[in-house]
């Protein structure tokens, strides 16, 4: 399959595609301010050994008065220190109301520090709610691509459009789903984890078939190696573009560190001390490469990732961290029979659980979203209902029940969970008590499939499909399509569309709507409409 990106040297070494070139020349499009800034900064920063913005730009954490801006200077992403010898580099940032930067409304200078891989995180304040802004960085005499972002609105908000995504194994395929997502008009993108995978990269880059530097072959364990992995992922032009034009909110799942890890417990070994170091390295590299507020800068090997994002009276997002504080999977890893310890184990940790239950619904927003790595809905693996995947909320059913019961008891308006992890689509009617068939549905859940993980093959449909009939509360399941989930909200209806791509072997693959669902205000549970496709899904929605 022909693709213009033939080597990573081309990808990372200052090559500029047409889209980026247009953004870049757009940034140059004529202001005295630019020349002035460039003149001042030429003295402050040494010239780079290549284009310093090879990993793109991003914004995130939108709130009513601002956003966080991100970039990382890495003129040679796979060289030592990204190709920068200086300890720190002064970076100018600017925010304007239009792409030509004639009306700059916020600006400043920040140091890109070697100790943070020359990444830049700027928490910009003083902006207007619900407004589109443009931003750029200038360093070493070079100007970044122009990013576009949007602050959160306040007061009465009639409509909101966002997409969510997860699981983007770089080796399993191209990011055609991000190329299509970038054609939507979105207020926000939410990433629910497995942003990177920790495994070594094969010499030919798996499904991508490109030559890979030898330094990427080993599994990620050190800070240097995790940085290389993030840099590799960030060289993808479709991922860069989705970051450039939409503000994101991110949380992690397991593969940002290691498969199925739990708190300070690695997947298999008992070397917790060694694992804490590895986890700290992974957490730091994650922070360095994502548009997270400086409040999320790691301290003592820990990152404060759980938080709320508010969109006026229409929605509030409770972004959860279901990895950092959880107990080790109490009844064993993988698929196991349920045991008593499942019912006392915590997935959120006491402090996060308290924070969640104290604050959820307090804003009075119409839709109250739980944005999390792993799915909440139950999936019985056998007819007896005794066998479960222990890494998901099914390994922590006691805490799940207590949380859903509390949210229901408080009368929180329209709780909806969005999750990833499974490389499959599930739509769930969430219940506080799965033991009782007559228990009420208290919330709705949409579990999105992967962006690229598992590639184009048939893997999970044939495996999980036969289990679906054991689970009356599952509205919909499909195991083997790649894509993202589009959500459009107003005050009466939440509309979800499953947007799937034809293939991840071709970065330019077309997308299609696979199924649509609505949740009506005041009525927990989804109602679906399947769009006829071939092959049909394995779930319950009839075409
Ligand atoms: Fe995954
Ligand atoms: Ca996962």
Keywords:
10-stranded mixed beta sheet, 10 helices, single chain, about 550 residues, binds calcium ion, 7-stranded mixed beta sheet, binds fe (iii) ion, alpha+beta, globular, disordered N terminus, about 25% strand
Largest sheet: 10 strands, mixed
Integer average pLDDT: 91
- Structural class by sheet pairing and helices: alpha+beta
Q: Helix coverage percent of residues?
A: 10-25%
Structural write-up:
With about 550 residues, the protein is of the alpha+beta class. The chain has 10 helices and 24 strands. The strands form 4 sheets. The protein has a 10-stranded mixed sheet with strand order 5-2-1-11-10-9-21-22-23-24. The chain has a 7-stranded mixed sheet with strand order 12-13-15-17-19-18-20, with helices on one face. β6 (about 130-140) and β7 form a beta hairpin. α5 (about 225-235) packs parallel to α7. The two termini are about 35 Å apart. The model is unreliable at about 1-45 (pLDDT under 50).
Short description:
By secondary structure, this protein is of the alpha+beta class. It is built from ten helices and 24 strands.
SSE inventory with pairings:
Blueprint: H1 8-12, H2 18-28, H3 32-44, E1 57-63, E2 66-72, E3 88-96, E4 104-113, E5 119-124, E6 132-139, E7 142-143, E8 147-150, E9 160-165, H4 176-181, E10 188-191, H5 223-234, H6 237-245, E11 247-250, H7 272-289, E12 307-311, E13 315-319, E14 335-337, H8 350-359, E15 367-371, E16 387-389, H9 397-409, E17 415-419, E18 425-431, E19 441-447, H10 460-464, E20 474-478, E21 482-489, E22 493-501, E23 511-520, E24 523-530
Parallel strand pairs: 1-11, 9-10, 10-11, 13-15, 15-17, 17-19
Antiparallel strand pairs: 1-2, 2-5, 3-4, 3-6, 6-7, 6-8, 9-21, 12-13, 14-16, 18-19, 18-20, 21-22, 22-23, 23-24
The structure holds fe (iii) ion and calcium ion (CA).
